[in-house]
Automatic annotation (TrEMBL):
Entry GO MF terms: nicotianamine synthase activity
Function: Synthesizes nicotianamine, a polyamine which serves as a sensor for the physiological iron status within the plant, and/or might be involved in the transport of iron.
Protein name: Nicotianamine synthase
PANTHER family from the UniProt entry: NICOTIANAMINE SYNTHASE 3
Length: 328
């Protein structure tokens, strides 16, 4: 039984029951249909606060996010293999059904970055790049033609698949590398080399995991560098984990963008504090104090600009980038 009278929650719960009963989440007519319905249900702006839902719905939401992540990974692997069969894979990226959504998200993130940065980044890290690293590819091809990209994923096979896509392109293969590493194993000597670090929406599948990663980045990123975090807002929080500005200890939150079009993810941009002494880092004591009450020390300077209607390209496929779930 759903413990909410909210019709939206009932709809999402019904879809969750159908999705969780599927024998496989590999791309198929049934899988695509259900995830499309889910995205369309969650897409319209809605003031719902998922943190105030009862325990039963919170558990359903957590399970649903994991199912979305699994389906997304399977869809990306499927299309990465298809693309790798072409002599020049990058010329055929538009066969991926949600490619236009990545183009829009990349444009959004590039605009946010340029509005809040004084220089073009020389080196960028993308954490959680997956087998079809469309964000890195689109940014590198369309917006940052002289920037080096390091893509990190814990799945070696995903990195191998991704590398096959850029290998035939002499320019991109020279600027883009793939590393099989857990973000929590990256130290200062690696992370301080980057001007910008992108944190994919599904790195850290719940609040606890996400905050651990953010605090690790706060401890090791270079002072003054930029963190781009993907989040979710309103009903879209049933698709992806939510990152609140107060979760970014050690960073100055510059802006929070909540798109209302088919770009599903919110985007948070933050700058690493210049003074490490003002950057509280994650610790066992912090975890014990905040496991059930995520309210880390609030930033003294937090300029949070919430822009609701951000539509860089208000046309194209209406289904979000969840890959009926595709998104990295």
């Amino acid at each position: 039984m759903v413990c909410q009278e909210e019709p939206l929650v009932n709809q999402i719960n019904e879809l969750y029951e159908k999705i969780s009963s599927l024998e496989s989440l590999k791309p198929s007519e049934d899988v695509n249909m259900l995830f499309t319905q889910l995205v369309l249900t969650c897409m319209p702006p809605n003031p719902i606060d998922v943190t105030k839902l009862c325990h039963q719905i919170q558990e359903m939401r957590s399970n649903l996010i994991r199912l979305c992540g699994e389906a997304e990974g399977l869809l990306e692997k499927h299309f990465s293999n298809i693309l790798a069969s072409y002599d020049v894979p990058l010329q055929h990226l538009d066969i991926f059904p949600y490619f236009n959504n990545y183009v829009k998200l990349s444009l959004l993130e590039y605009n946010i970055l340029t509005q809040n940065s004084i220089h073009v980044p020389k080196r960028v890290a993308f954490v959680g790049s997956g087998p079809l690293p469309l964000t890195s590819i689109v940014l590198a091809l369309n917006h940052l033609p002289d920037t080096r990209f390091d893509n990190y994923d814990i799945d070696a096979s995903a990195n191998e698949m991704a590398a096959r896509l850029v290998e035939p392109d002499p320019d991109l293969s020279g600027r883009m590398k793939f590393h099989t590493k857990d973000v929590m194993s990256l130290g200062k000597e690696e992370l301080e080399e980057y001007d910008v670090v992108f944190l994919a929406a599904l790195v850290g599948m719940n609040k606890e995991e996400k905050v651990k990663v953010i605090h690790h980045l706060a401890k090791h990123m270079a002072p003054g560098s930029t963190l781009m975090v993907r989040s979710a807002h309103g009903a879209r929080a049933f698709l992806y984990p939510v990152v609140e500005p107060e979760d970014l200890c050690g960073f100055e939150v510059l802006s929070v963008f909540h798109p209302t079009d088919e770009v599903i993810n919110s985007v948070v941009i933050a700058r690493k504090a210049d003074d490490d002494r003002s950057s509280p880092v994650y610790s066992l004591e912090w975890e014990q104090n905040h496991t059930h009450n995520f309210s880390p020390i609030r930033l003294q300077s937090c300029k949070c600009l919430e822009i609701q209607p951000f539509n860089p390209l208000n046309h194209g496929n209406i289904v979000g980038e969840l890959a009926s779930s595709a998104h990295q």
